[in-house]
Amino acid sequence: MWRNRGSGAALIAFLLAFHPALADNAAAQEPLPEDPESGLVVAPGWELVRANCSACHSTRLVVQNHKTQAGWVHTIRWMQEKHGLWDLGASEETIVSYLASHYGTQTQAAGFRRRPLNQPALESTENAP
Ligand code: HEC
Question: Is the pLDDT of residue 108 over 70?
Answer without folding.
Answer: no
